[in-house]
Specification:
mainly alpha, about 180 residues, about 75% helix
Length: about 180
């Protein structure tokens, strides 16, 4: 839409300029038409610029909300691994933000995490000892969420093992220097 307005503006401006020059040099009767077309081209260009600015502002606001939701999601899950007390209100807020702002792939990965969490932790309160398989399942599900978030925000691709290494200080997961 914006490109079409820019092209229309350019064509109207060029036509208006040509007609204005003709009006000034040869036929005064077309001068009003030339100046009207030139003015219309400026209006179309202003509309195109305004449309771009409005669309950019909406996109930036949407991106900021999604980034905030993603940050809260990652922090919330990291707190679970660190043994922090479960915050039902904070969890509800974070889940609502993810449901509204997150990309479909991130939503799917959060669902995988939720199922893995329910399977391995359930409704247990306090600190929970996980089996190696259960811990691995939760860590992988979490790393998959982070990888999906990175894809969504356009971050450089890194492996699941590298993400695990950063999140959980797993030296065997990080590439050799």
């Amino acid at each position: 839409m914006r490109k079409a307005l820019v092209w229309v503006s350019a064509l109207l401006g060029a036509l208006g300029l040509v007609i204005t020059v003709v009006g000034l040099t040869a036929d005064r009767s077309v001068l009003a038409t030339g100046t009207t077309l030139s003015g219309a081209s400026l209006v179309a260009l202003t509309a195109a610029i305004g449309l771009k600015t409005w669309a950019d502002e909406r996109r930036m606001a949407r991106d900021a909300a999604a980034r905030q939701a993603y940050t809260e999601l990652v922090e919330s899950i990291m707190k679970r691994f660190a043994g922090h007390t479960f915050d039902a209100t904070g969890e509800a807020k974070m889940r609502a933000q993810i449901a509204v702002w997150a990309h479909a792939d991130v939503v799917k990965k959060v669902q995988v995490w939720n199922r893995a969490y329910d399977r391995n932790v359930g409704s247990a309160a306090g600190s929970v000892t996980l089996s190696d398989r259960g811990r691995d399942e939760l860590v992988n599900a979490f790393a998959e969420i982070v990888a999906a978030v990175r894809r969504e925000i356009g971050g450089p691709r890194v492996s699941i093992q590298e993400i695990r290494g950063v999140l959980f200080n797993e030296p065997h997961s990080s590439p050799a220097p």
